[in-house]
Design brief:
It is a single chain. By secondary structure, this protein is of the alpha+beta class. The chain has three domains: 154 residues, Reverse transcriptase/Diguanylate cyclase domain (Alpha-Beta Plaits, 2-Layer Sandwich); 215 residues, Alpha-Beta Plaits (2-Layer Sandwich); 96 residues. Strands 6-7-5-8-9-12 form a six-stranded mixed beta sheet. Strands 2-3-1-4 form a four-stranded antiparallel beta sheet, with helices on both faces. A four-stranded mixed beta sheet has the order 10-11-14-13. A hairpin with a 2-residue loop joins strand 10 and strand 11. Helix 2 packs antiparallel against helix 3 and helix 9 runs antiparallel to helix 10. The termini are far apart. Zinc ion binds next to helix 5.
Length: 501
Amino acid sequence: MSYLVLFDTDRIQDYVFATQKLRAMRGGSFLLERLNRETRETIMARGGQVIYVGGGAGAARFEDKTSALNFCCALEAEYRKETIIAGITTCIAEQTAGESFKDWLERAEKGLRRRKDAKDRSIPLVNNPYAKVCEFCGRLPAEGDPVKNKYICMACKIQWDMGMNYKHSLIYKAIEEKFAFTSITWPESLEDIGQASDPEGYIGLIYADGNRMGQRRQDELKRCQDTEVEEKYWQFSECVDKATRWAMVDAVTELLGQPVANKPYPVQFFITGGDDMLAAVPAQQAVPIALKFGELFEQYYKVGRPEEDVGESFAGMGQDASVAMGAALAKQNYPLHSLINTARQLQKSAKQLAWKVWKETGKDVSTIDFLATSSSLLKPIQEQRAEELAYDQLRLTQRPYAIDDAGKLVELIRGLKSSGFPQNKVNDLWRPLYRGRLAACLDFLVLLSRLSDRGGDSPQQALAEVAKEFNLSPFPWRLTPDFHYITPLLDLAELYDFINL
Ligand SMILES: [Zn+2]
């Protein structure tokens, strides 16, 4: 009899972001990656056969029940020991007589989901008045000697120690491989990243997640013959994992360029498993890197990564896929937790657009939402926008954007900058929008007439180009099918300082 074992890491993000410290976060992220990679050996050591391991999850086949059970116990114990709070869920399914791999897999997946849902999701809080609460996560009792004069819990201590080794993570290794001719210094803090920013002192967090990946896998398996299902299953998981990682590596290295001697290479990754990605980069690179990432992910998922490129090559799935991204830009000392939360909300907003387009047209479109923020979000983003960026029948933002439109916005900003559009007029790009529809039209006419029209690419032409590209008529509005007037001008102004030539 054969036994199929599926496993999946629990609460990856809760675990990685439980701590408040950057170093501990990347340590946690690396620890999960390392544990996942080591699972391959654990499977083989217990007499199993690896079907797939990657992105915090995996599958294996065992020929006897005891080995399968032993493996599951060993794996769960290892995760408990190393992470204290993250854990992993396993599920064993025995193949019934004559059952196809497809049905077997489906049954195992249902079992895994049931087991995951049944798990207690709460992380214990300290309620003993004599115990000191961990100063990193504020949740577990502090133990052992203080770290940097702070009393911290076992889970945070391991994450913190692991933070030293994060450079061994696959994604950092991949970047080092691309720049094999030189050595790279990695940043130790967000300040190291902010220093590389222009304007200085700002960082951008990019949060990306594939759209409808579960559904996509189902479709892939449905399409193939019974005999091909097992192969397709690991091909899919591997393709998603590699397409995500390499799209980010290639986007980052293309836009950040080669490492500069004695300066940290300004990027940090927090989540890099499966189709999830969370990275911090200098603010002015966040949106361009995200857009490049979206474009490359679509390409790599469909046709794979070419052999002639430095790094790993792999085959694509021959189908379309897309990602939804959030980019949150803020000062480097902005509370990291709030910024991560903002980036996730932006990603959700982008995902809704991707979903809507897919439902209406059946097309896969990668999308992005962004926000340059100086204060903490007090309300959910959509609520805040409904209050601040909409009145009467006017909508002062086009966010979220399909990546093609966001790319247009970036190019239009570059067009304005290279035309010599006066910096002191940037506020005039959004202020009139609050004066009502007609008054705004007049204000923009005045603005246009006062801008220089001399030269091939004059400021006046660059602004007129914005109207043309987004079909704004009468400038700065466009009438939507549901009879609202919408404009990208405020989005453009918000992003203006964070896009460089
Ligand atoms: Zn803690």
